[in-house]
Design goal:
Elements: H1 2-14, E1 37-38, E2 41-42, H2 58-61, H3 101-105, E3 139-141, E4 145-147, H4 155-159, E5 189-190, E6 206-207, H5 223-227, E7 259-260, E8 282-283, E9 302-303, E10 311-312
């Protein structure tokens, strides 16, 4: 009888909700299984329990349609997500990173080819802008992924425990995996709890950036430095061509990233960011967002308000997971001006 009581009590604990400050809310059994058995069937299809006794893996947990009420961010949908022109409209249902639906159903240029979601890229053997270090297909987490601790090759081990310690009310300082922005190890930032479901200038992620003084500076902790793990030549690689020929001075090797627009002394077009008629306190754009060096919990709802709050980053133009547009861009630039959208003009205000 004592054993039955103990099992029953433990089973009851499994159904207790996780703290509201945690990254995952709800009963433990939504994510974990004790015996890998339910209704005479394996919980894990292979019959072998998943790491951390999970009922499924990264992709299984994050597949679905966002409706504004789900606590789990769905980044892969089996039916077309509602994206519209920029993914920020009042009736869109994609999140900040976009969705892997398009790379899986349309083609390689629509997002990252994550193993288990889509096949390996048919054109590229290594990530564009990479030095050849990464040759295997991308994973969600671990040494060949974006999230988690890169010291682990197995994905669940790479993120283990961090889902239980996320607090959206504080600045994520990157000192541990659990206190890193969106489990991007060492990245700083502050993520809105709904993962930018229909964002506004008053409700969006706060991305950390650094105003670099050197092209080769890695800008550790910035959101763009995370992208540079695979695409370093697009961020902080050497100033050389593919052939190894050194470029001359004054030549743009790449679009500036981790760069404050206030330093663009050659032009004043950036001062009217987001269609502002004046310079200073420009309304923040969720279509072409910028990073900030401010590490407080104050949301950056305006731009050109304080030092280093207009930092161009990789995510100013791209969606990390995928979009319906070429190059995983946030908008359909290739079809502009006839049928697309020129999101570049949010910053380059004189070129629309």
């Amino acid at each position: 009888m004592r054993n039955i009581v103990r099992v029953s009590a433990f089973s009851f604990l499994l159904f207790l909700p996780i703290s509201s400050l945690a990254g995952v809310t709800g009963p433990c059994v939504s994510c974990h299984t004790m015996h890998n058995s339910q209704d005479n069937l394996w919980v894990a299809d292979s019959g072998v329990p998943n790491p951390a006794l999970l009922v499924t893996g990264c992709i299984g947990c994050h597949t679905g349609q966002n409706d504004g009420s789900n606590n789990t961010p769905f980044v892969f949908s089996t039916t077309p997500p509602q994206y519209r022109a920029t993914g920020t409209e009042a009736d869109s249902n994609t999140l900040a990173g976009g969705n892997f639906y398009w790379v899986n159903n349309i083609g390689d240029r629509r997002g990252h080819n994550v193993y288990g979601i889509s096949g390996k890229d048919q054109t590229l053997n290594i990530p564009p802008g990479n030095d050849g270090t990464f040759t295997s297909q991308l994973r969600c987490a671990g040494s060949m992924g974006c999230h988690g601790d890169q010291n682990f090759s197995e994905q669940i081990s790479a993120v283990k425990g961090s889902h239980h310690y996320k607090d959206h009310t504080i600045w994520q300082d990157g000192t541990t995996l659990a206190t890193s922005y969106r489990m991007l190890n060492t990245a700083q930032g502050m993520g809105v709890p709904d993962y930018e479901y229909r964002p506004t200038d008053q409700k969006h992620n706060k991305y950390y950036g650094i105003d670099r003084t050197s092209e080769t500076e890695t800008a550790d902790g910035s959101i763009s430095s995370q992208c540079a793990r695979c695409h370093e030549y697009f961020h902080n690689g050497p100033a050389t061509l593919v052939s190894g020929t050194t470029l001359g001075t004054g030549v743009w090797l790449r679009h500036p990233t981790d760069f404050d627009m206030t330093n663009a002394i050659s032009s004043t077009e950036y001062q009217f960011y987001n269609n502002s008629t004046t310079y200073g306190n420009n309304i923040y754009s969720v279509i072409s967002p910028v990073a900030t060096a401010d590490v407080t919990t104050n949301l950056n709802t305006t731009v050109f308000t304080q030092a280093n709050d207009a930092l161009v980053m990789c995510l100013s133009c791209h969606r990390a997971h995928g979009s319906p547009y070429a190059g995983s861009l946030r908008w359909n630039y290739k079809a502009w001006p006839a049928a697309g959208y020129n999101g570049c003009a949010i910053c380059h205000t004189s070129k629309n």
